[in-house]
Amino acid sequence: MSSKQTEQERIPMVVSTTTTTTTALVETNHHHRDLTILQNNRDNWSNRVVYLLSIIGFVVDLGRILLINRDYYCYYCFSIR
Amino acid sequence: MYMELAIGQYHRLGYITIWERVCPPLKGIGYAMLIINFYVLSYYNTIIAWSIHYFFASFNAVVPWTYCKNSWNTDNCYSLHDKESLNFTHNASCSSADEYFERRMLRSHLSPNINQLGSLQWELVGCSMLVFLLIYLSIFKGVRTAGKAIWFTALVPYFVLVILLLRSLTLDGIFEGLKYYVAPTFQSLKEYGVWQAAAVQIFFSLGPGFGVLLSYASFTDSHDKVAHTALIASLVNCSTSLLYGTVVFAGLGYLSFRLKSDVRQFTESNMGLVFVVYPEILTSIRGAPLFSMLFFIMLITLGLDSVFAGAESVYTAIADEFPIFARRPRLSRALVVLIPFLASFSTLTYGGKNIVHFMDFFGTSPSIMFVVLCELIATAWLYGMDRFSNDVQTMTGQKPNIYWRITCRYIAPIILCVLYVCSFIQFDKHEFDSFGDAKTVVRVSIAGWTMSTISALPIPIYAIWWYLTRREKTLSQQTTKTVVTERTDEQQSFI
Description:
The structure holds two protein chains of two kinds.
Chain A: H1 2-28, H2 35-40, H3 48-59, H4 62-66, H5 69-77
Chain B: H1 2-11, H2 18-22, H3 28-57, E1 77-78, H4 83-87, E2 94-95, H5 96-106, H6 122-139, H7 143-168, H8 174-182, H9 192-205, H10 212-217, H11 226-259, H12 264-267, H13 272-283, H14 288-321, H15 323-327, H16 329-343, H17 352-362, H18 365-396, H19 402-425, H20 438-456, H21 458-494
Helix pairs in contact in B: 1-11, 1-18, 3-6, 3-14, 3-16, 3-17, 3-18, 3-21, 5-13, 6-14, 6-16, 7-11, 7-14, 8-11, 11-13, 14-16, 17-20, 18-19, 18-20
């Protein structure tokens, strides 16, 4: 009986300590915010095609077309032409 | 590109906050990306504004850069459609399209050097406002609206490119231009500079270091095949370059045929290739106004989706890091759009072209390489390739293959290191000679390198600050975590 009681007393104590320490961790971690909440509450692309188009839309930019200084710089500096 | 997509998809956070998960001392990478994005947003929109100006100017029976009889033209003007003026061309001659770009749209003749930018070009201010409004409308509900806008902005350029390609194939002299474009010069392969230029070109074309890939990946399904996405995007990107090159060089072949000159002289022009040479080509084909409108619609859409990607990534980064911005998302997005608009005013003056040149040169190139180098070190070395591989396996069911592992860990950092050092060594001091006298050029170079350094500085500053203040906290947190784990184990053993 006494050993059972000891177990029952010890378990809440451990749980309590864990909860407190976890709370402390969350509080100290990243300006009192839990990053998991940010990750879970995120908007999503409606489908994979939209996601792919968005990536393609970003990488295929005016720089590709303008051939302005960025490319010109390469050609100019390295005397390709 | 692969690495940015993978860590963004796994951690699902904006490009500042994510580094707390990946490598806390290098969180400055996120702030560096933020600064670079603001630099880009403050000048890139001006180039789209120029396209909008040209688009509206195309609504004429005869596009206004066709002839030399306008109030802005000089005596040195020649036109493809005026045989008399073509007979008197000399070194000081400018085409009607060139004079339209310089003297009508930019009015750059009213700004003698970079110290005297002149007043605002109000037409361009109006066009720029329209650009920022379009950007805001595209992102005001985040990826929900951006996902709808992208159907238009990503697909229209291909539709227009195919039309222009078909039209180009019917023109005379195109084979001369295409020959210049595709004929290889094998001797050049022995030159180090060619390989270096190719590396710089492909590096910038894939858009790493801006954080956009990382932000966009954070909105996708976490089981998306990262390697497939990276490969498809890269292949489409390179194919688009080839397609566009074919269209432009076919046009240049036609122009050289009409002017009886060498194709080479047109390819060496600066940003004039798009705003001078190609519009000039368009004037001489039937249905010029329609093809001009299509061409500039293509430029506008190409620019818009890149810019609203940048703006949305800025919002995502600051909203994840500073929750106050996430509470009022529409207002915050409006601020993200408004601040670069105000910052872009100097690019909308008579001398704005020089500011665009300056910002494009110093705003991105050297610091982006440094940022990407730090990203690779943080992920492949400090976070660890094994952890990264496990993350990819968790998402896709497969670890990255040997190619990705070796590239991310060894090849990419080494190449970037070389390119970064070369960007300093090979800086050409004559790049800004057109900005004014020798003193001005020196000042411009100093200002440029300072601006470039400012965008890279957050990385070392944050690392030092973290080492001095946060390191002990993080270490104590790790100790506490160990205690928690031990106690939980203890508790489970009791249960």
